[in-house]
Amino acid sequence: MAGVVLENLSWKKLIILGVFLLVLLITFFLVGGLVAPKPSNVVTVLGTKCYDNGKKLNRSKWFVSRGIHKCEELQNLDPTDEMIVNKSITEKQVVFSFWLPGPRGGEERKMTPLFQNMLAVLQVDIEHSDKVPLSKNPVLQLDVRLGARDEGDDEDDWKQIASSVEDRNLQCTLEKGKGEGYLYDCELLQLFELGSISNHYYLVNIRLPVNFLKGYNVGIGKVVDISIHLIHQNGGFTIVWMSMKSVLFVMVLSLLIWFWRRIMQLGRPPNLLERTLFSLGVVMSILDCPIELLQLGVDIPFMLLLNDIRQGAFYAMLMSFWVIFAGEHIMDQTERNRLSLYWKHLSAIIFGSICLFVFDMCERGIQLKNPFFSIWVTSAGTKLALAFIILAGIAAGCYFLFLCYMIFCVMKNISAKKASLPTMSQLRRKYYLGVIYRFRFLMMATLVCAACTVVFFIMSQLNEGEWRWGDEDLSLEFTSAFFTGVFGMWNIYVCGLLSLYAPSHKTVVEIDSADGSTEENVQLTQLPTTPSETSALQALTSKAAQD
Amino acid sequence: MTMKRNSVEPFLCFARFCLFIWILISPSHTFGNWMYLGVSSITAPRDNICNNFPGLVDQQKSLCLQNPQALRGVREGAKKAIYECQAQFSSERWNCTLSSNYSVFGHVLKKGTRETAFIYSILSAGVVHSVTQACTAGNLTTCTCDVSAREGEHTVEGWKWGGCSDNVKYGIEFSRQFVDASESTRSEKSENIRNRMNLHNNEVGRKIVAELMKFRCRCHGVSGSCAVQTCWKSLSDFRTIGETLKQKYEAPIRIARRSLRTLKRAEKTKRRVPISYTELVYVHRSPNYCRANRKRGILGTKGRECNKTSSGSDSCDLLCCGRGYNTQVVRLVERCECKFIWCCYVKCKTCETLLDKHTCK
């Protein structure tokens, strides 16, 4: 890279650009904080205990918790309860029914495609009783069905979406000193995850069949209630997020086109760094592309998976860019500008990405078939998932070691070069100063962005995790601001790179006007015509060695 | 026309005066109370239940008429609270005795003792708990959906834009309107310290429910990572709420009878320390619950079973108030070695054990 826009930009222009980007960033932050609601909302629905009075187990019948087809409700599941004793109800006749979402303000609430996706987790309330304690590591087996219906449909026309028999490990604890009648503190269980919301109402029917031979649902204690916590993205957040993505998409795409045209104008094949930067822009614009909007019209269940892949691809590309950027600025004798030189670093990235991809396919890929599936529920699955994640973690660790080593090399060379700068001819000094400046600038920008991300992340986690009772007056929605702010920041980062690290047209002119020795002038004016720039660099460095 | 009015007016005036006097002097607690909902055995809410139910004040009646489903929540809440009160006080000298008439707790509520404080707070908490649960179960369709005012709501329905507020908010608001109604209507007329004590204790019950809510979080970011985390609060079980209120009962604050704007502590040195809504307050000292006093509705601890080995409030020393105890050997037939199949099947063996039973003299 001979000269980039950054080097030839006057301080004034650079500051103007910086202020502009900063204002843009603050705008994104404020849009998230002031306009958007919380990113996601939780709907809690307490299960209605329905009595299945059929003689035979009829799995195709729906039990609805309210409305005109409301099932016969059991008030209490206590063995001594009048109704249970009189009708000698068994566990096979008890169905927990959930109509999602719940009614509010006197009318049924409807789900909408704006919610994008939903995740349902199960909370099981188990009462402690000294006579029937919880067994060790009990397995809860859920015979579960998920149905859906639209507003205009017939009241009992529930269409089945999925049905499955799922095992979940119960992990419950009871505080010391708490006896009869206290509820165990049980960990939340994953129920299902849907990648698209195409119906208004969802109905979940859960049975807990007991199987003595296999030991299912035997030692689960006195299950008194089950509730579902449904987490979905907020519609308002989706609207704000999509608008932001559309704006950013246009911005990145137009910058990308400008960048590529600039390189084309150079009349030489683009070098490695330019190609990497271009790819980074491409991946960023793919991530920005608001394809989620399609979900408003079409049912795309694989959207969650696709978003994960897009985001993963961006991370991988960003990491590759950093390592290549550092490598290209190392300023040693080696001939660079070849991708194959970075095979160690890139393979670490690719290996890590593949691990995460496989893990994601195992989790969300299978969820496309069976929304109740979760890799974490079985011990083998947990081990497999952990193995993938640990491998990805090791790969990331290796990558960072490589990167740190590389940055160390660059720093070392920079200080070495700096020491010998006064002895160099003015042109060469200018060249090296440019390289150092470019590197330092990116380093600073990256560190600032990374630090901001970490700080925002911690703040949003604290903010979310904090006990926030009664401070609804606070008008800044911090979690949303974090998402829009950080996403906007990395977009601005890429935009800044694309615009500042684009090859400058001024280079040749300025070098011509520079009053260096004619010999060097010849070498440098040759620059654009040389097939690879670094060979010119090398010529220069070898010259420096001769000096 | 004028004649008629003239002849009626003195009577009306007198009637009003009588009513006023009656309101002033009559201890409302004796003739029925909304708490009776918790012990009555009405199952289905009938049309006229709101008007005919003994002890509901006007505001409660109108709330009930507006929202008949909520009455079931109140009933469940009161029932739950009374059950919990008896469970928490099963080993105390006062064991949350119910009276047989409409007043539910009988003479206990007449005086502003700490027992009264506990009753008010737990009943108020019970209403919050049950109404919130009814909202969550979808049985109570009128639960409000408050959304914080933000832009964009005008074009998109509030719930679709930003979801609904917590159910417990509605539960607390409902409890405030319903439970406090019987106090606030009267306190306008007279600065009655008892009303203010009850109002304070009602609020304590609600605050405890809100404070004890469990905070749960779930991560659902990229590939299930914690980059995105959603947290929410859910009700804790009523046993824990009862236990916490019992702890508050152990260390209540006595308030001065003459408290002007805010409640003041009776203890002179601490007058200036404000009273928070996490502490129960009382006016009168508790009577001695040891000996039966029919006039004051105290049953006494005679005949109560006590624990010889314990050192707590159920120990024979404390429970029998030093009167000593009788010991008899009883054959206890108990269910043991139970086999439990969820949900509804328990098969137990019967075991016989010989046991020393101690009862207070």
Structural key phrases:
heterodimer; A: alpha+beta; 4-stranded antiparallel β-sheet; B: 361 residues; alpha+beta; two-stranded antiparallel sheet; 11 helices; 7 strands
What does this structure look like?
The complex is a heterodimer of chains A (547) and B (361). Chain A is elongated. Chain A folds into two domains: 5-39 and 237-546, Rhopdopsin 7-helix transmembrane proteins; 41-233, no CATH class. Chain A has helices at residues 5-8, 11-35, 82-86, 235-265, 272-288, 303-328, 343-369, 379-420, 426-465, 478-500, 506-513, 518-525, 533-546, and strands at 40-46, 48-51, 72-73, 94-100, 103-104, 107-108, 118-127, 139-149, 159-169, 172-173, 185-186, 189-194, 201-207, 222-233. In chain A, the strands form four sheets. Chain A has a six-stranded antiparallel beta sheet with strand order 3-2-4-13-8-9, with no helix packed on it. In chain A, strands 1-14-7-12 form a four-stranded antiparallel beta sheet. Chain A has 547 residues and is of the alpha+beta class. Chain A is 49% helix and 16% strand. Chain B is an alpha+beta fold. Chain B has two domains: 5-144 and 163-211 and 235-300, no CATH class; 304-361, Endo-n-acetylneuraminidase fold. Chain B has eleven helices and seven strands. Chain B has a three-stranded antiparallel beta sheet with strand order 5-7-6, with no helix packed on it. In chain B, strands 1-2 form a two-stranded antiparallel ribbon. The longest helix of chain B has 24 residues, at 2-25. The termini of chain B are far apart. Mean pLDDT of chain B is 80; it is low at 1-6 and 18-31. At the A-B interface, strand 1, strand 5, strand 7, strand 14 and helix 4 of A face helix 5, helix 6, strand 1, strand 2 and strand 6 of B.
